[in-house]
Amino acid sequence: MVRVSVVGAKGRMGSHVVDAVKGAPDTELALTLDAGDDLAAITPDNTDVAVEFTVPSVSLGNVLVLVAQGVDVVVGTTGWTAEKLDKVREALAAAPRKDQAVFIAPNFAISAVLADHFATVAARYFESAEVIELHHPTKVDAPSGTAFHTAQGIAAARKAAGLGPVPDATETDGGSRGQVVDGIHVHAVRLRGLNAHEEILFGNAGEQLTIRADSFDRTSFMPGVLLAVRKLAEGGHAGLTVGLDHFLDL
User: Fold this and answer.
1) What string of H, E and C letters represents the secondary structure of the chain?
2) Where is the Dihydrodipicolinate reductase N-terminal domain (predicted)?
3) Which CATH number goes with the domain that contains 127?
4) Which residue of 6, 64, 109, 167 has the fewest C-beta atoms within 10 A of its own C-beta?
5) Between the CA of residue 146 and those of 65, 97, 115, 171, what are the distances in Å?
6) Alpha carbons 230 and 53: distance in angstroms, whole number
7) What residues are annotated to the active site?
8) Which of 127, 136, 91 is nearest to 208 (CA)?
9) Range of the domain at 43
10) Which CATH number fits the domain that encloses residue 89?
11) Residues 119-127: what's their mean pLDDT?
12) Number of domains in the chain
């Protein structure tokens, strides 16, 4: 049995993780912590893998504390920048265990991971590309970590294919063209009734390809969370891994 502790256990995602861990045949719930609780309670003596689902403002600090305590961590909180990822890598380099692992997922939904993968495959064949992400209005960050990661993958694929900038004659947009991530425009919608959705639009003269992933309920993320927990528990993934695609046979 894999002993799993959940940080952010009372949150919207954390509560689902608690239920998923309890319901899986090969995992057992160790500790549940939330805001104000002492992370020092989570140690290798009682936890094989900690799952961190909180908010971007505290996630990095939580991960650094858990790494210092010798605990492997699966992170579902978004809002990770290159600078924050570097701090995690530095912490892992100084970690008490050389085989210690941290896994960060922009998205745990299999549909979203596949959409992201398909987008990197398609990117080299199209002149234009844009990303639209749509979420519930209580989401605290924009654009979503998933959309940010998708745009980075599209940009890298375009660069590898020798493509130039995406065509765009807009001169003044007042912010309506969205955030630009490595040259790819990313748009964020916050609307009551939505959960987590992403559209990736590709265009050439006379044709368009749309890749869309929809997560209608947070339970859609749980198979991915459990997959990451199992992978870290089995070992062989030392260091920092970003993206569930690394654990799928793509």
Assistant:
1) CEEEEEECCCCHHHHHHHHHHHHCCCEEEEEEECCCCCHHHCCCCCCCEEEECCCHHHHHHHHHHHHHCCCEEEECCCCCCHHHHHHHHHHHHCCCCCCCEEEECCCCCHHHHHHHHHHHHHHHHCCEEEEEEEECCCCCCCCCHHHHHHHHHHHHHHHHCCCCCCCCCCCCCCCCCCEEECCEEEEEEECCCCCEEEEEEEEECCEEEEEEEEECCHHHHHHHHHHHHHHHHHCCCCEEEECHHHHCCC
2) 2-108
3) 3.30.360.10
4) 167
5) 25, 30, 10, 28
6) 17
7) 135, 139
8) 127
9) 2-104+218-247
10) 3.40.50.720
11) 98
12) 2
> For residue range 188-215, what is the model confidence (pLDDT) as tens digits?
999 999 999 999 999 999 999 999 999 9
Q: Is the pLDDT of residue 98 over 90?
A: no
- Among candidates 107, 14, 85, which has minimal Cα distance to 241? 85
Distance CA 134, CA 144 (A): 9
Cα atoms in the 13 Å half-sphere on the side-chain side of 6: 22
Contact 128, 158 (CB under 8 A): no
The reply to whether 130 and 203 lie within a common domain is: yes
